[in-house]
Fold this sequence. Notes:
HSP40/DNAj peptide-binding domain, three-stranded mixed beta sheet, 11 strands
Amino acid sequence: MADPYSTLGVARTASEAEIKKAYRTLAKELHPDKNKGNAKASERFSDVTKAYDLLTDKDKRARFDRGEIDGEGNPTSPFGGGGFGGGGFRGQPGGQGAGPGGFSQDNIDLGDLFEGLFGGGGRSRGGFGQQQHRNVPPPKGANVAYRLAIDFVDAATLSPQRITLADGKTIDLKLPAGIETGTQMRLSGKGQPGPGGNGDAIVTLEVKGHRYFRRDGDDIRVDVPITLGEAVRGDKIKVPTVDKPVFVTVPAGTSSGKTLRLKGKGFSKKGGGRGDQLVTLNVDLPADDAELKDFAKHWKDTRNVRHELGV
């Protein structure tokens, strides 16, 4: 994977909020459900997810910025990127005892050097190679990306979800408050195995749409039809919510567009509590009702209901 900053299209000075915003935009654009059969989009989606994972891990981001790890999270060099600088070997081209490449062989045990660099168990004097090897931890296995589609009602009520991992094991997930499409959950140690332990599983959540509920931030909107009689009289009617149906009272004389607010019937908020459900009432008239037509012939509304429109 290339530079994670370039992958997400953000500057190296980008804040965490800017990184999250860039990731959500790209995740929606490259989501496999919108790019079925597009292998390049799928690969790009995976790269974007890995870049987001690295840059939102403060320790990994700092190590990448220092050049200690690459965009995959692997060490860039067994020498820590420092080469043979001050305090290392001194080149003596053409000098007495110079070996290949001009390095002096005086008092140097190459066996100790390679044992220190590559983990040999022989003699160690705590030299350069051995010290650097101790400072670079063995890399963990690769993270594994998963996508999980969540039913709208389950997301609103934070119903537990079950996911099957690549190894066939299942895990019950407790959804986070404030869940939305693009929200990520990290399952520690559920990724690929590696010398330094398992990587993590990164689960990207997608909240599915609903046939009559609509999300508005932490609130939920729904349009509910009512009859002319219910609107005129002000009856009690049953309306759906993501929890269970409830009864509400229609204000007498209600017109279409009237909105009622049901407290605490929306999505769970990150800071605690829940949003509301907004119920918009719409008067539904029968298409061909003789009795209603006869009533309208003998009843007249003298108001000018369109005066605000200048007509």
